[in-house]
Design a protein that fits this description.
By secondary structure, this protein is α/β, with parallel strands linked by helices. It contains 18 helices and 22 strands. Bound molecules: flavin mononucleotide (FMN) and iron/sulfur cluster (2 copies). Flavin mononucleotide binds next to strand 6, strand 8 and helix 15.
């Protein structure tokens, strides 16, 4: 574990520029600095490889296979790429970063297919675009399909006139770094296109991409509207219809998450849609509710074939630049920050539908903060046979599908599995009530002196937010654990910026 940490977090130790000074590269941190340029200057300068693609693989949790894009590159090629880098703070350390990675240990000649069945529909992989700004016209969806996305939940279609505000987004950035945000707030409502135009787009998409899955997301205001929109979706050749019960910022009364919070209303609308079409019906749940299972169960009783969750979380951000002519409103939060909340809702839905016992055929489509294949895997292991992505595509583009597919294929290969289906719900049984958790044993933090940079952050946090169990030697700048005081909370490990704190074996607590 120790050597793995060294290798993964920092790469191997290298000699730098002929001097004796040892340097370590945290490949993830370095890759995170990369601007992920379009038509990347580094790659253009490199000649024999694609360093930008290699860095993107590291950035999206595929550091091991990253080397395949630079396998023919000499150090001179990588240095040339580095010199061409346009980063405003100075070039990304391309050579050191890539030379720190060990060759892939997974044989890529027999990657399994990622195909999976969702609502009885064959999907070439579980990755779909979520209904949103990433899929509002034919050309966008066509490009996403060409890139490798298996399907689309198209931007929600309704019969009301939609006029959006400007600006309509705000973002929570990591420190001052623009472009890289962990949370995203949007005030967008539904499709601004005429209804007929959107269904024509869906018809053409299905005709031209028959193996891709086209789902119409719809929102009605009355039973008649719900039924009419669903029928239009079926007539356009859509594979399924998603019922948007969850937009948190609808201007019109009786639409969006107002409806989604009422089990009676969602039951009525789901039932009338079910009566009017034969294609699968997938209600989309709002997270802005205490018990998501209540409306979901009502939908299942009304015949829903699957449930998708979550839509955005009601939120407020305070930046003046996101005001609309001096005014503000509550609106939906998405992106990386919402993933744990989305996972909790998925867990509750999976437990409700008893997927683990295979006694119910209600399926789940997971949404909320998915950026990398590991994020997607978490939703799948909690019971989702399908996952949807919005904010990460808005940030990084359709190209993230490359690493979603690659990472999942490598993961299956590493585990000796041949089917995606076997991952669905495999971690559900690990979840139990807090009163069942083991409270008699402890795991201590273990400090790795070779990795410690002597910042003292572990001591600061343990002193002020923990149990005063770390002593920091100001001369040697080394932390020392006082075992008798340590409660094994692992705050120190989580704050250590150098990855220098690991874990011991679990042992019985001292009486
Ligand atoms: C700009 C924007 C527009 C959205 N529009 C819709 C929509 O029309 N219909 C819908 O069901 N959800 C809509 N959503 C919600 C997303 O489909 C998704 O449920 C949510 O953003 C969480 O996923 P994410 O963290 O991957 O973005 C929108 C989200 C954003 C950010
Ligand atoms: S030019 Fe620099 S910032 Fe742009 S993709 Fe290449 S390494 Fe990243
Ligand atoms: S936080 Fe990590 S790097 Fe900093 S002193 Fe503690 S162990 Fe060392």
């Amino acid at each position: 574990m120790k050597s793995l940490m060294k290798r993964i977090l920092f790469g191997d130790r290298n000699q730098h520029g002929g001097t004796q000074k040892e340097i370590r590269v945290n490949i993830y941190e370095e890759a995170k600095q990369c601007l992920l340029c379009q038509d990347a200057p580094c790659t253009k300068a490199c000649r024999r490889g694609d360093p930008a693609r290699a860095i993107r693989a590291i950035r999206f949790d595929n550091h091991k296979p990253a080397l395949r894009w630079v396998k023919d590159c000499s150090d001179a090629d990588l240095l040339r790429a580095e010199r061409a880098c346009i980063h405003y703070n100075g070039p990304i350390r391309i050579k050191e970063m890539l030379r720190s990675i060990h060759p892939d240990d997974v044989d890529d000649s027999h990657y399994p297919s990622l195909d999976i069945t969702f609502c009885g529909i064959h999907c070439e992989n579980p990755f779909f675009l979520a209904s949103s700004a990433v899929c509002t016209n034919y050309e966008m969806v066509a490009r996403a399909f060409e890139a490798g996305w298996a399907g689309v939940f198209y931007k929600t279609i309704c019969m009301q006139e939609i006029k959006e505000v400007s600006p309509r987004f705000d973002a929570m950035h990591n420190s001052a770094t623009h472009g890289d945000f962990y949370g995203f707030r949007n005030m967008e409502q539904l499709s601004e296109n005429p209804v007929e135009m959107d269904f024509d787009i869906l018809r053409r998409l299905k005709q031209n991409y028959p193996t891709k899955v086209v789902v119409a997301s719809i929102m009605g205001q009355t039973e008649e509207e719900w039924m009419k929109l669903a029928k239009m979706a079926e007539e356009a050749g859509c594979d399924a219809v998603e019922l948007n019960f969850s937009c948190p910022q609808m201007k019109h009364k009786g639409m969006g998450s107002d409806v989604g919070q009422s089990p009676e209303l969602v039951k009525t609308f789901t039932a009338c849609v079910k009566q009017s079409v034969k294609i699968p019906v997938i209600p989309k749940m709002t997270p802005n509710i205490t018990h998501i299972t209540e409306p979901a169960e009502a939908c299942v009783q009304a015949g829903a074939d699957a449930i998708s969750a979550i839509n955005t979380i009601k939120s407020v951000t305070m930046s003046v630049s996101s005001e609309v002519t001096g005014q503000r409103t509550i609106s939906g939060y998405s992106g990386r920050a919402v993933k744990p909340i989305a996972l909790r809702h998925i867990l509750e839905l999976a437990q409700m539908s008893n997927i683990r016992c295979q006694t119910s055929n209600i399926e789940l489509s997971g949404i909320g903060g998915i950026e990398t294949w590991r994020d997607a895997l978490e939703f799948i292991q909690l019971g989702c046979a399908n996952v949807q992505v919005c904010t990460a595509v808005m940030q990084y583009g359709y190209r993230i599908i490359d690493d979603l597919i690659l990472g999942m294929q490598r993961y299956l290969t590493k585990r000796g599995m041949t089917s995606m289906q076997s991952l669905v719900g495999e971690l559900l049984l690990k979840f139990m009530n807090p009163d069942h958790l083991d409270r008699e044993t402890i795991i201590y933090p273990r400090f790795d002196k070779a990795l410690c940079v002597g910042c003292g952050r572990c001591e600061v946090s343990c002193s002020d937010g923990g149990h005063q169990a770390i002593v920091f030697d100001h001369d040697t700048r080394q932390p020392r654990l006082v075992g008798t005081k340590c409660v094994g909370c692992h705050l120190c490990r989580l704050v250590c910026p150098a990855g220098a704190i690991g874990m011991t074996k679990r042992v019985n607590k001292k009486k």
